[in-house]
Design brief:
Distance between the termini: 41 Å
Structural class: mainly beta
Radius of gyration: 18 Å
CATH class of the largest domain: Mainly Beta
Strand content: over 45%
Shape: globular
Length: about 170
């Protein structure tokens, strides 16, 4: 039974942000949460990890008022989550005193898959997970769980460090 529950949870796990930073520093992420998100988890691994979360009204979410601390290993890693966060643009602040990794995931029935290729294709086997700089590239995007009137209008491409590179319009395939 526990194995089934684990697989069911993994099936609805969506990746909201994943980035690796080579140096210390503080980052601010403005992440839109849609009504389908049932839970959001923020993981930070690196020295002196700190995570701050503000709801769409700008109010900090703290332990005891919606924030659950799942893991706190001093000078190594921190993991927090929020259940039923509510829709809107949330602000997530992370900081570390050295090289660190940030992963933000959620539980939702809405997800997407993207692949990059040099030629137009409808076959994900013909795509790769990252584009090659300087080469014209096509993007194959498959969404699941989205129902009208919702639709995908644009795709924002980020660097490996999580910095915005370009926003491109999405054209639906008939």
């Amino acid at each position: 039974v526990l194995k089934w529950v684990e697989e069911a949870v993994q099936a609805s796990k969506v990746h909201l942000l994943s980035t690796d930073r080579l140096t210390s520093g503080r980052s601010f992420w403005q992440i839109p949460f849609d009504p389908s998100l049932k839970e959001v988890t923020v993981s930070l691994s690196g020295p002196s990890p700190e995570i701050g979360i503000h709801n769409p009204l700008g109010k900090p979410v703290k332990k005891g008022s919606g924030l659950n601390e799942l893991l706190n290993i001093e000078n190594s890693a921190k993991v927090v989550n929020i259940k039923d966060p509510g829709p809107g643009t949330w602000t997530i602040q992370t900081s570390s005193s050295g090289r660190h990794s940030i992963r933000i995931t959620g539980l939702s029935n809405i997800d997407f898959r993207a692949g990059f290729s040099r030629k137009p294709t409808l076959d994900f086997k013909m795509t790769s997970t990252r584009p090659v700089q300087g080469i014209p590239t096509f993007i194959l995007l498959n969404t699941t769980g989205i129902h009208l009137p919702a639709r995908v209008e644009r795709l924002e491409l980020l660097s490996v460090a999580g910095d915005p590179l370009k926003t491109v319009p999405v054209k639906p395939f008939p």
